Amino acid sequence: MTQKQLDESTAYLIGKGFEQPEIGIVLGTGLGKLVDDIEEPIEAHYNHIPFFPLATVEFHSGKLLYGTFQGKKVVVMQGRFHLYEGYDLMDVTYPIRVMHQLGIKKLFISNAAGAINLDFKKGDIMLIEDHINLQGGSPLAFKNVAKFGDRFTDMAEPYDKEMRTKLTAIAQREKITLREGVYASVVGPQLETRAEYRMLKILGADAVGMSTVPEVIVANHLRLPIVAVSVLTDECDPDNLQPVNIEEIIAIAGKTEPKMVKLFKELIKEI
């Protein structure tokens, strides 16, 4: 990655009309409906944006959208990138750097995840308050990283406390159950074994997924405040483990999505 590449990607999007967005939003698996509420959307497909990777997962649609959402200018990633698709961590996080260069001041992230904490149920939403990086690398581990920000990025508070507090208050007001916990990010694409679920519980994870953490690391590198939620689509009980059903996971994500959209809508109104 070079500054010239970022400049080309950004220039292309500005040419399409992506003018000074305030908020960036990353939508996870089965969580694409938020874009229905964007006013006067402008689309840019990933395969047309210079130096952008391509989304290869069938339920990730692969485009950036720009428009007005709750009175704010937003840029939305509909479809994200994962290590399990064969990308490296710089590919996975490249769109975050582009959105930052476009001018976003805050980043909202969503994902679909499995519940490790068995007090949490499928269909719940979990506000991520901390994470465990189990992806075996860092998106900041490259030679010229210091040109883009501090090499030794502090991660004492990776998720913005103020936005988390506001989201908790919104959930109470809207009578939406909002759990809070630690998200562990693994490579995938295989699901975890029973022994791995037990290990994750011992490590202190409340949920597990295959995304989000690289984007959060880069956002912290860029000093971009983040709020992130997991839609819990399955319960990972090692003593009663059922074979995974991807269709069911997508269905649960879709069913829970209106609550997540409501939370994001109300938070965007308030910030």
UniProtKB/TrEMBL annotation:
Top enzyme category: transferase
CDD domains: PNP-EcPNPII_like
Entry-linked SUPFAM superfamilies: Purine and uridine phosphorylases (SSF53167)
MF terms in GO: purine-nucleoside phosphorylase activity
The protein's Enzyme Commission number: 2.4.2.1
Nucleoside phosphorylase domain: residues covered: 23-269
One CC-aspect GO term: cytoplasm
Swiss-Prot/TrEMBL keywords: Glycosyltransferase, Transferase
Family designation: Belongs to the PNP/MTAP phosphorylase family.
Protein name from the UniProt record: Purine nucleoside phosphorylase
